[in-house]
């Protein structure tokens, strides 16, 4: 859209836990302004407007915000099952997109969203917000300089017990609206694996269980995989666990290793006798205000202003979701090895 020198207009659709953190980030960005807050329930949108003292429009219809010529960016934060549909509509309307994960719940939705965004030419960021976490940035720098050599093994786990305290509990626990453990939560760990290895997975096998029976899908998942370049990996997701939040990272290379914020490198630190600790901010909390949404939002605005693509756009995130869906398919098929890319077009098949 032709915006001249005015600020980028932002419409936030969804008014829950994450939307509030997004809105706070948009308020801090000097090149954008919130034009609209909308939700399925107008009172929820109005409540968010009041809490943050916003001067903007309030809507209860997604379609209405696409008719507002002041809006350049649509920030999609509603329930999982509408993300792809709304992302496609926003792209077709020529709006740039910030979309919460998961961006799709099926192979078909994943492909349709990717292709629509590519055709439209809009900029996009999928909210794998941990890519802007300081520990992630430290690890990427160390990997880029081959501080631990070439990666041979990677392990990333997402352990976060969710329950009735979570505002989205009633819909997130269902297969129809939540999708699966991997799509609803574990996709953060899967995306981190791809980000660190800088490669795509060739094949994956997975198993899961549902010991408590609180979810319509199995909330405890473990998967092993082989990357195209030869590295191997493992990821697990536990969202019915009774323990503090944990995001475990193990990266093992030919010349050393990284374990969370600890470094062992015979190349960088010859004679090392114990782990070197990186004093940084780790992804050690599930609280949304602990996540670097400000940096994610600034990044999208920079991509729009400078006409460049994000490293975390829909095209890249397509591969994270493809892997999550392959893990779900493996579980449904009793741990079968699934080769990627896969062509199946069903909704997450976890049963």
Structure summarized in a few sentences:
Helix content is 34%, strand content 23%. It has 351 residues and is an alpha/beta fold.
Explain this structure:
This protein has 11 helices and 15 strands. α4 (about 85-90) runs parallel beside α5. It has about 350 residues and is an alpha/beta fold. It has 2 domains: about 10-130 and about 295-310, NAD(P)-binding Rossmann-like Domain (Rossmann fold), CATH 3.40.50; about 130-285 and about 320-340, Dihydrodipicolinate Reductase, domain 2, CATH 3.30.360. The strands form 2 sheets. It has a 9-stranded mixed β-sheet with strand order 14-13-12-11-7-10-9-8-15, covered by helices on one side. A 6-stranded parallel β-sheet has the order 3-2-1-4-5-6, sandwiched between helices.
Number of domains: 2
Residues in helix, %: 25-40%
Question: Which strand-content bin applies to the residues?
Answer: 15-25%
What's the CATH class label of the largest domain?
Alpha Beta
Sheet bearing the most strands, described? 9 strands, mixed
């Amino acid at each position: 859209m032709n915006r001249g020198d005015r600020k980028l207009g932002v419409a936030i659709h969804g008014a829950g836990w994450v939307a509030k953190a997004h809105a706070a980030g948009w308020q801090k960005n000097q090149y954008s302004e919130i034009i609209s807050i909308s939700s399925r329930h107008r009172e929820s949108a109005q409540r968010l407007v009041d809490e943050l003292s916003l001067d903007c429009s309030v809507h209860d219809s997604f379609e209405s915000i696409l008719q507002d010529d002041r809006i350049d960016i649509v920030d999609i934060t509603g329930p999982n099952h509408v993300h792809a549909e709304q992302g496609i509509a926003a792209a077709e309307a020529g709006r740039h997109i910030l979309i919460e994960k998961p961006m799709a719940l099926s192979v078909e939705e994943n492909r349709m969203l990717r292709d629509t965004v590519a055709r439209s030419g809009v900029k996009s960021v999928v909210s794998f917000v941990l890519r802007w976490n300081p520990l992630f940035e430290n690890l990427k720098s160390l990997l880029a300089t081959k501080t631990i050599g070439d990666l041979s093994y990677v392990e990333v786990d997402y352990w976060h017990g969710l329950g009735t305290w979570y505002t989205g509990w009633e819909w997130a626990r269902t297969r129809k609206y939540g999708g699966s453990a991997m799509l609803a939560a574990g996709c953060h760990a899967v995306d981190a694996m791809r980000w660190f290895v800088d490669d795509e997975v060739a094949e994956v096998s997975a198993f899961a269980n549902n010991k408590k029976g609180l979810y319509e899908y199995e909330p405890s998942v473990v998967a092993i995989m082989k990357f195209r370049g030869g590295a191997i990996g493992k990821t697990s997701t536990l969202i019915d666990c009774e323990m503090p939040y944990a995001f475990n990272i193990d990266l093992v290379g030919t010349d050393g290793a990284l374990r969370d914020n600890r470094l062992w490198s015979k190349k960088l630190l010859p004679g090392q006798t114990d782990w070197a600790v990186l004093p940084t901010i780790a992804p050690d909390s599930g609280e949304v205000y602990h996540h670097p949404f400000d940096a994610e939002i600034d990044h999208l605005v920079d991509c729009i202003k400078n006409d460049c693509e994000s490293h975390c756009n829909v095209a890249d995130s397509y591969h994270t979701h493809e892997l999550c869906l392959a893990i779900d398919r493996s579980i449904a098929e009793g741990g079968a090895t699934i080769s990627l890319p896969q062509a199946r077009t069903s909704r997450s098949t976890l049963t």
